[in-house]
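Budget justification note: compute hours in this period were largely spent on complex prediction jobs such as the one shown. Inputs:
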Amino acid sequence: MHLPLAVDRGASLKPYNTFGLPAVARTLVRITSEADVRKVVDSPEFGRARKFILGGGSNLVLTQDVDLCVLKIEIMGKRLLETRDDAFIVELGAGESWHEAVAWTLDQGLPGLENMALIPGTVGASPVQNIGAYGVELQDRLESVDVVDLTTGRTVTLGVDRCHFAYRDSVFKHELAGKTVITKVRLRLPRPWKPLLGYLELERKIAETCITQPDARQIFDWICEIRRAKLPDPAVIGNAGSFFKNPVVTAEQCRDIIGRDPEIVHYPLPDGSFKLAAGWLIDACGWKGKSIGRAGVYEKQALVLVNRGGAIGAEVLTLARAIQESVYGRFGIRLEPEPVVV
Ligand code: EPU
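Corresponding output:
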């Protein structure tokens, strides 16, 4: 049966970005299956148009109306695909909510994603920025990704090596941006399961509760508590999670900064460089709780910019630039935004 594509003209994107920023898409096409992607490719109207792929809109700053053809990914599905000796493989539709998918795996008795609970956004967006939290990144759990090529309409399965993952980065932000649609994500949950408790905040939970051998469900609950205590719920206060990446500096630069600011939060990386906590840098510049116009810096985590109500994208960018300038002025470090700016 050939159903027509679901197309909205002049669609408001405000409900589809977690910052709650206003913008209008000239055309928005709802994609509920791989077949829909192929219909777009074959369509005389949309086939050759430039595309913008929209997932949960949780890593997005909209500064203007969008003249591109917006493909809103709503492909659903969750199943245990395979049980191997060393791992469970689960297959998830790109339009599924990431957090609900994590909760579902635990309900099925398939642990391994619990440290990444409550990350906003969709499953399809998770490889794009290589989401990560509390010691696990998507690249540590990815088996493969199905993508449909927007020129040929062909489906290709990409293994982890072809995704070129790096910290909050992947091939989908570069060579493949706007050229492919992620339709399915397969995750590998290692067996036997091992808890990852290396983060200070998790160690604190163990000390507080005296639960020294938490199961995956317990870790999931702790992660939800930790995140709720310091990150704003996008359903209540518009935001896009961490607004800047944590900068990486050389050992020499790090020593230099420590010389001036001994308190600076820094983590050694395997290659000898150091990752600095961007939230600490912004906080040290006095930005926590401050605002420019209707855009502000969250009171409990300076790395998160928030919409104080009715903000437009330009206000968010003005605030972001002011923060970048003061961090550069004081520490000589350029902060790089994490979300995609349109
Ligand atoms: N800090 C401050 N002041 C602040 C914020 C942080 O001093 O206002 C200090 C904290 O005390 C802590 C350090 O900076 O010592 C790091 O803070 P936190 O543990 O909150 O982690 P983060 O580096 O700010 C990163 C990710 C988060 C992820 C957490 C936990 C990035 C850009 N952010 O935040 O991811 O949840 O670690 O793993 O890598 C996201 O990407 O949207 C996101 C929320």
